[in-house]
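Thread amino acids onto this structure.
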């Protein structure tokens, strides 16, 4: 709660100054969220459909995550009316180690801890050429993970510097947002920067290179009436990565690779009653690295309930939104490189998880 109050106090201070003098930099929006996540899977069954009620035993806890996020948007008046978008995220994870119930290998019940920091900071500006307008971003993303224990995983750092436009395209009566970016990246340890190999797979334990991002997104409302609303979203992401380094395993230069991430989903929300609403969300995500064998497909169904309340303030609208969600179905079908060796003697299998999330989001939209 102290963090929430601190963020709000900062937002109100900046907003009041901005209202007093419109020639200085202004805050457009700021938000803060905190959330606890607990996932379960049935570790005693060597099948893909063994979760059931047994999954909620204490021994079947997979990972506990506490996620905190703060972000916002500024208008930099003195810098040519550039926009500044920022997002900071911290994950604190507790993960029960891998224990093989068939071979009895591993130390049952031990927990590893990790902490991950991420940021995405970008300057942006609308550029108009004739009748065509696009938003150009110059940004930096950073990820760093540290932790204790054998299975804490993904320890290392990665950086990505990107530049490029986002623009709209109309095709067959549909509107699409298209994002194209040139990227410089570096990675070390167990971070990949969306490359097919981690930094630790290279001889020096780290590597850098160049790439291209191409993302196409489409979404909208199917209906919004007295029985509620139904929205859909489709996203097709492609990330070319060409790392300049030799792999330890082969002694050869790493191949260039394209990371493919295709997502389609829909969310139904009930009408609000004194701010309370229910929701059902379904989503399918398919991922692959073209330079490596295999793929991963995730299908999920979420249910949830939330409360949303807005407060009119002199500087803008303050919104408070607590929400609880439960993932009743989550099936991950994995093949090849995406296997975590949980199931033996097979190149392709399906694993299941359930997850409970509870948190609150507080946001201020400035007038």
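Threaded sequence (367 positions):
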């Amino acid at each position: 709660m102290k963090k929430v109050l601190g963020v709000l106090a900062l937002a109100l201070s900046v907003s009041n100054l901005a209202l007093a003098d419109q020639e200085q930099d202004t805050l457009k929006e700021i938000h803060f969220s905190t959330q606890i996540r607990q996932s379960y899977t049935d570790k005693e069954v060597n099948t893909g459909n063994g979760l059931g009620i047994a999954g909620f035993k204490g021994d079947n806890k997979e990972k506990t995550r506490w996620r905190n996020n703060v972000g916002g948007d500024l208008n930099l008046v003195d810098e040519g009316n550039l926009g500044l978008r920022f997002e900071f995220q911290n994950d604190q994870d507790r993960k029960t180690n891998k224990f093989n119930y068939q071979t009895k290998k591993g130390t049952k019940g031990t927990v590893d801890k990790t902490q991950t920091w991420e940021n995405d900071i970008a300057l942006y500006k609308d550029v108009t050429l004739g009748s065509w307008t696009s938003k150009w971003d110059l940004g930096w993303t950073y990820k760093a993970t540290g932790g204790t224990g054998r299975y804490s995983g993904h320890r290392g750092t990665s950086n990505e510097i990107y530049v490029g436009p986002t623009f709209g395209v109309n095709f067959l009566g549909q509107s699409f947002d298209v994002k194209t970016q040139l990227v410089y990246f570096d990675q070390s340890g167990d971070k990949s920067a969306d490359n097919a190999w981690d930094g630790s797979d290279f001889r020096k334990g780290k590597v850098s290179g160049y790439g291209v991002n191409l993302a196409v997104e489409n979404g909208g409302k199917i209906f919004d009436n007295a029985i509620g609303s139904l929205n859909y979203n489709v996203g097709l992401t492609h990330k070319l990565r060409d790392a300049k380094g030799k792999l330890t395993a082969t002694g050869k230069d790493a191949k260039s690779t394209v990371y493919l991430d295709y997502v389609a989903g829909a969310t139904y929300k009930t009408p609000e009653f004194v701010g309370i609403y229910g929701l059902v969300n379904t989503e399918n995500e398919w991922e692959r690295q073209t330079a490596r064998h295999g793929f991963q497909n995730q299908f999920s169904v979420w249910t949830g309930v939330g409360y949303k309340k807005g407060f009119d303030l002199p500087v803008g609208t303050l919104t408070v939104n607590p929400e609880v969600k439960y993932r009743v179905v989550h099936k991950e079908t994995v093949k090849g490189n995406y296997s975590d060796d949980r199931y033996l003697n097979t190149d392709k299998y399906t694993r299941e998880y359930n997850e409970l999330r509870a948190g609150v989001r507080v946001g201020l939209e400035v007038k």
